[in-house]
Specification:
- Pathway: Amino-acid biosynthesis; L-arginine biosynthesis; N(2)-acetyl-L-ornithine from L-glutamate: step 4/4.
- It comes from Banduia mediterranea.
- Its main location: cytoplasm.
- GO terms for molecular function: transaminase activity.
- Its cofactor is pyridoxal 5'-phosphate.
- The protein is α/β, with parallel strands linked by helices and 404 residues long.
- It has two domains: 150 residues, Aspartate Aminotransferase, domain 1, CATH 3.90.1150.10; 228 residues, Aspartate Aminotransferase, domain 2 (3-Layer(aba) Sandwich), CATH 3.40.640.
- It is built from 14 helices and 17 strands.
- The protein has a seven-stranded mixed β-sheet, sandwiched between helices. A four-stranded mixed β-sheet has the order 1-2-3-15.
- Helix 4 packs parallel to helix 11, helix 12 packs parallel to helix 14 and helix 13 crosses helix 14.
- The protein is globular, with a radius of gyration of 21 Å.
- It starts with 9 loop residues before the first helix and ends with a helix.
Length: 404
């Protein structure tokens, strides 16, 4: 047994934590806007946002104020009674989206778990055997046993068998494959409008429309996982708005709390009625602290200037990354939506995206990967131009050193 101590370091992780993560060598201790500082007071530009979570940067004053005010009022009640922050947040989410009903959870995985359970109850209630869920290869929907099973990456289910059945995986953006597979036994088609962990791959407009039409034809629910694409990340409040396709169920988390853990499932009244009293729940879901912070995030992200600024920043980043790719031969042309940007590795650099992330840490910029073959950039939606430029300069320095 290790001795308790107020002095901790990266090595402490290996002594006391389950080894399902391998965190980086540094330990960040504070953040402000789009900068973070480690235990040695070294500064980094944040192009990762805690995996597209801190959409307004670190310690945004409106979020700090909301958390502080609510923290001095009420922290937790459970769902035996409701609370004002949850009701305000749900009201605003329904005002701003297609939805009429909201279920709150603590994470994207929990929001998706609720969505998939709702889809199964919807199907099983309407027809015997109507319980097949169709999803897509390379998708990612969470880490519960149900959500990793719906997700289309076998590496996340290996060793956890037997996994839930009744799930079919198809190629993403393949209309013909979806037409061939969907039937009256299908209760839901689950998709990300842009596959995040699968490599920053946007759905085509043709595929999105076809999925909607086929779900209508077969009385199946169209479920959009917007855990990563939501909260302004693509330049729309939710990515479905840019596709011109409305889902039946939408899940949201990550950016919803701006760093405070919260998730939500959004749907219509008619579909929500398939989850009556006692069929699903969450002790912490919709807690006053999380909902108060999320309301402040939603109010701020919904401002036209914030959403309009996403595309301006995205164009600058993609132009610079494309130029880097041409100059050093490490990236192919970038892809993505808004400020969820992927730079696919060139043939010579296949499997080496993490090397660029590690070099970035050394030069003072924090980036992500989206699988071994794609560098992922997901900064704050309001990152100042000076910090954006500095981060790109540091990224270029990292790439130049690797290629020297």
């Amino acid at each position: 047994m290790s001795s308790p101590s107020t002095s901790v370091s990266r090595s402490t992780f290996d002594e006391v934590m389950v080894p399902n993560y391998v965190p980086g060598a540094i330990v960040p201790v504070r953040g402000q806007g789009s900068r973070i500082w480690d235990q040695d007071d070294k500064e980094y530009i944040d192009f990762a946002c805690g995996i597209a979570v801190t959409v307004l940067g670190h310690c945004h004053p409106k979020l700090v104020a909301a958390l502080t005010e609510q923290g001095n009022k009420l922290w937790h009640l459970s769902n035996v009674v409701t609370n004002e922050p949850a009701l305000r947040l749900a009201s605003k989410l329904t005002e701003k989206t297609f939805a009429e009903r909201v279920f709150f959870a603590n994470s994207g995985g929990e929001a998706n778990e609720a969505a998939f359970k709702l889809a199964r109850r919807y199907g099983n209630t309407r027809a015997e055997g109507k319980n097949e869920i169709i999803s897509f290869h390379n998708a990612f929907h969470g880490r519960t046993l149900f959500t990793v099973s719906v997700g289309g990456q076998a590496k996340y289910t290996q060793g956890f068998e037997p996994i839930p059945g009744g799930i079919t995986h198809l190629p993403f953006n393949d209309v013909a494959a979806l037409e061939a597979a969907i039937s009256d036994k299908t209760c839901a088609v689950v998709m990300e409008p842009l596959q995040g962990e699968g490599g920053i791959l946007p759905a085509t407009a043709e595929f999105a429309r076809a999925a909607r039409e086929l779900c209508n034809k077969h009385d199946a629910l169209l479920v959009y996982d917007e855990v990563q694409t939501g909260m302004g990340r693509t330049g729309e409040l939710y990515a479905y708005m840019g596709l011109g396709v409305t889902p039946d169920i939408l899940t949201t988390a990550k950016g919803l709390g701006g760093g405070f853990p919260i998730g939500a499932m959004l749907t219509t009244k008619a579909i929500a009625d398939y989850l009556p009293f006692g069929t699903h729940g969450s002790t912490y879901g919709g807690n006053p602290l999380g909902c108060a912070v999320a309301e402040a995030v939603l109010d701020t992200v919904s401002e036209p200037a914030v959403l309009e600024g996403v595309q301006v920043r995205a164009e600058k980043i993609r132009a610079r990354l494309d130029a880097l790719g041409e100059r050093y031969g490490v990236f192919g042309p970038t892809r993505g939506l808004g400020l969820l940007i992927g730079a696919p590795m060139s043939e010579a650099w296949k499997g080496r995206a993490k090397e660029i992330v590690n070099a970035g840490w050394k030069h003072g910029v924090w980036c992500l990967v989206a699988g071994p073959d794609v560098l992922r950039i997901a900064p704050s939606l309001i990152i100042p131009e000076a910090e954006l430029e500095l981060g790109l300069e540091r990224l270029e320095a990292a790439v130049a050193e690797l290629c020297a």
